[in-house]
Structures are given as structure tokens and as C-alpha cells.
Task: structure prediction
Amino acid sequence: MRALAEVRDDPLADDGLLLRRPRPADAPLVLRGTHDPLVREFLQAVIPHRDEAAAERWLTEIPPMLWQTGRAAYFTLEAAGEAVGWGELVNLDPEQDSAEIAVWLLPEHRRLRTAKSAMRLVCRFGFERIGLRRIDAFAAADNMPSQLTGAAIGFRRAGYRPALFRSSRTQRLHDAVYATLVPEDLC
Ligand SMILES: CC(C)(COP(=O)(O)OP(=O)(O)OC[C@H]1O[C@@H](n2cnc3c(N)ncnc32)[C@H](O)[C@@H]1OP(=O)(O)O)[C@@H](O)C(=O)NCCC(=O)NCCS
Result:
């Protein structure tokens, strides 16, 4: 896989959706996302920003630093010029050419079948630009939309991990379904 700092990072588009690197003007998106109950339930270590200024400061400093140091690739998802969600490739592992994916959409953009295109774009970036050979997904066992979205684009169920991660909202431990995707299976 290529070092993140060296990959082409111009936007990827498909199906009316655009995947691009985040910018400070995405503060309203990040502020809402980090306060959303489902995002906080199903993603680990989500810290709600205090206000838009705090989200803007975080966007200015953290995603570029993580990208530059090869630790995580964060993305904003845009539809018709509007920021609608967020994607991540984390736990980038140069020995296994692998990473882990997470995606969320603002509530009004759920249940519209946008999720599949969103997850597909993040995976395409991982395979085509970074050169990953495997992308893993860990969805809470009770997070059916996330599991079904992954399965619909080619992720195969590979295991069950009891008490794998802690809800950012309630601190409750979630069991997780582990699924994995190789480039040949992405559909
Ligand atoms: C996960 C997420 C991105 C999925 O997006 P979405 O727009 O809700 O997904 P969709 O509406 O396309 O639904 C995906 C599938 O789940 C089904 N589904 C949706 N809500 C459901 C529910 N409450 N129970 C069971 N199935 C459900 C849909 O019918 C669809 O299946 P189908 O394609 O076979 O019809 C979105 O729900 C989200 O942002 N959730 C909060 C954050 C999160 O959980 N992220 C994932 C963490 S890894």
C-alpha cells in the first residue's frame, strides 16, 4: 500500500455522491454528527464538539495531521453540494495492506440508499488510491443498516466478536459482527 501522504487525494464521485477530504467549513456537519444518538451509539470514541468553532478547530488540525502521518483517512461525503455524511479508513496496516472502515450519514440522508454509494466510495478510495488489499468492518450486532449496507457491496461475514467496543453514548459494550472485503468482491 502507498503512504497516505503520497496518494492522489482529489475527490471521487459516483451515483450523485462525492467523496472528498474534509475542510474547516464542514464544521456544521461534524458538529451534528458527533451529537447524533446513532453515531454516538455505534461508533467508538466519538467526542461531541461543544460548538461550531470547536468543530472547525478540530477539522483544521486533526484530519490533516492524521492523513500526513498515515494514521487515518477521513472524508466528507457530499450530495448536490451539501455535506451529508462522513467516512473513515482507520487502523491502516502497512504489513497487511488493510484498514477498517466506518461511515455515517446525517439522519435526513438515511433510508435513501445513499449509504451503499457512500461505503462503496470509501472502499474504492482505499483500494484504488491507497492500494489496500483488504478492508474490515466491525458493525454492532444490533446495527442492521450497517451490516446490510456492507453485505450489499460485497463484504463477507468473517466472525463475531463479543463485547468488542463501547458505545460513545451509553458506554455499553456492543458485540460486533466482523465482515471483510477484498477488491475483487466490491460491487
Ligand atoms: C449505517 C448507515 C450509514 C446506513 O445508512 P442508511 O441510509 O440508514 O442505510 P439504508 O437505508 O440504505 O439501509 C441499509 C439496509 O438496512 C435496512 N434497514 C434500514 N434500517 C433498518 C432497521 N432499523 N432495521 C433493519 N433493517 C434496516 C434497509 O432496508 C436496507 O436494506 P435493503 O437494502 O436490503 O433494503 C446509517 O444508518 C447511519 O449513519 N447510522 C449511524 C452511524 C452508524 O451506525 N454507522 C456505522 C458504524 S460502522
User: Anything to note?
Assistant: The radius of gyration is 15 Å. The longest helix spans residues 52-68.
